[in-house]
Write a structure and sequence with these properties.
This protein is of the alpha+beta class and 183 residues long. It folds into two domains: 113 residues, Beta-Lactamase (2-Layer Sandwich), CATH 3.30.450.90; 40 residues, no CATH class. It is 27% helix and 28% strand. The chain contains six helices and ten strands. A six-stranded antiparallel β-sheet has the order 5-4-3-8-7-6. The chain has a two-stranded antiparallel sheet with strand order 1-2. The longest helix is centred in the N-terminal third of the chain and has 12 residues.
């Protein structure tokens, strides 16, 4: 997988004729491969929009992958192919929907599908299932104590200011309920 700076080129999704003659269907293999590559480089987000090649975020830096731009039909068919039927109804009514997408052997992704300039776009974020420890993140011990803090029997929640970008918060990285050893 290659961003403009490094790696092999990305191949756009391939389409195949449905054997029942119901039109074209998107193969998920290319998307799943791209998501595996995203996880392999410790990336967090994948952005797909028409008129541009895919982009991913690695270490906070958004990079464009080499390859042809996606056509409006590519992003639309890809979104419909991975969207659960009940979510499809919401998307058709509101032109935006959120859902989870799972990749066997990799994990889950939080997906936001939306309409942008008359075409469908997707933003996918890897949901970490094995939170890092305070030590693995290189954080001071005060952060661990904050993650373990309780008020009225409830965990203290750390949020971003309203309107800020969607960055992983402390709660996504540190899981004090099942702590790993802090070496």
């Amino acid at each position: 997988m290659k961003s403009v700076q490094e790696g092999p080129p990305w191949a756009p999704p391939r389409f195949a004729r449905d054997t029942q003659g119901e039109g074209r269907v998107v193969k998920r293999d290319d998307l799943d491969r791209l998501l595996h590559d995203l996880a392999h480089v410790d990336g967090s987000d994948l952005h797909l929009k028409s008129g541009a090649p895919p982009r991913w975020r690695v270490n906070g830096v958004l990079s464009t992958l080499e390859g042809p731009p996606l056509a409006p039909k590519d992003t639309s068919e890809l979104a419909v192919a991975i969207m659960p039927p009940n979510i499809r109804e919401i998307f058709e009514a509101k032109h935006e929907a959120d859902f989870a997408y799972s990749v066997q052997g990799l994990g889950r992704f939080r997906v936001n599908v939306f309409c942008q300039r008359g075409s469908v776009a997707l933003a996918m974020r890897l949901v970490h299932t094995n939170p890092s420890t305070v030590a693995e993140l290189g954080l001071p011990d005060v952060v661990r104590r904050l993650a373990e803090e309780r008020r009225d029997g409830r965990r203290v929640r750390v949020n971003e200011a309203h309107g800020q970008s969607h960055r992983p918060t402390l709660a996504e990285h540190v899981h004090p309920e099942a702590p790993k050893p802090l070496n």
